[in-house]
Design a protein that fits this description.
Length: 234
């Protein structure tokens, strides 16, 4: 997903509507990642709120076209790591319930997936459900490409034998659950608006007021200097 360079330049200047457009563009992806990794929509909403607040605070620092995508991938994963305390039971896990399959083998595979070390879980889901390439997988996990693909390979080696030759079928079921109910055209405007009002609006106001403030300070200093100069007995 790419952002128009002119939009990004406006974001760097704390433009409210441009910042809102960027946050809206990535909202669905953040929700998808958060829900898939946490297994719960309720937890995912909390993660989305955290990420949108952080994005509104950091967006002016994005100076390259790929910066928003890299930022959202990495910081969504960081927020998941901080916010997820316990993974749900497989019967309540949305990776299972949204896949539309009651297959006991698939249920066992989801259960085994959730028992993997956290980085292997992340690599598996980002690689097979979100379909990230090696480079973006490494960016999201903040690892070298070699380390990220090693985690993915380890997860595959653990889970593939449990699938009984049906691993590709189970990948598709997980991808179906991963994307189910996520509408990329619908963003939570209230969440985004709150983030912008709190973190972008004050900076935008300061950008507008700063020249006036500087001129006022210069005028006051000039007046003070003029009066002080007039009082000196030469």
């Amino acid at each position: 997903m790419s952002i128009n360079p002119s939009t990004l330049r406006q974001v760097q200047k704390f433009n409210l509507s441009a910042t809102a457009r960027v946050l809206e563009a990535y909202h669905a992806r953040v929700l998808r990642l958060a829900r898939g990794i946490s297994g719960r929509s309720t937890t995912a909403r909390k993660i989305v709120n955290v990420v949108m607040r952080q994005a509104a605070r950091s967006a002016h620092q994005w100076h390259h076209d790929d910066a928003p995508e890299r930022w959202f991938l990495h910081h969504t994963l960081l927020a998941c790591r901080r916010c997820i305390r316990h993974l749900p039971d497989v019967s309540e896990d949305e990776l299972f319930t949204r896949a539309g399959s009651d297959d006991p083998a698939f249920r066992a595979l989801v259960s085994a997936l959730r028992q993997l070390p956290p980085q292997q879980q992340e690599a598996f889901l980002l690689g097979h459900a979100e379909r990230l390439g090696d480079r973006l997988l490494a960016v999201a996990m903040d690892l070298s490409t070699t380390a990220a693909t090693t985690h993915l390979s380890a997860a595959d080696q653990t889970l593939a034998p449990l699938a009984g030759g049906r691993i590709d079928e189970f990948h598709k079921l997980i991808a179906r659950a991963w994307h189910d109910g996520i509408n990329p055209q619908v963003a939570e405007s209230a969440t985004i608006d709150r983030a912008i009002v709190r973190h972008v609006l004050p900076r935008r106001a300061w950008c507008i007021a700063r020249p006036i403030f500087v001129l006022a300070v210069i005028a006051i200093l000039g007046l003070f200097t003029y009066r002080l100069w007039g009082r000196i007995d030469w």
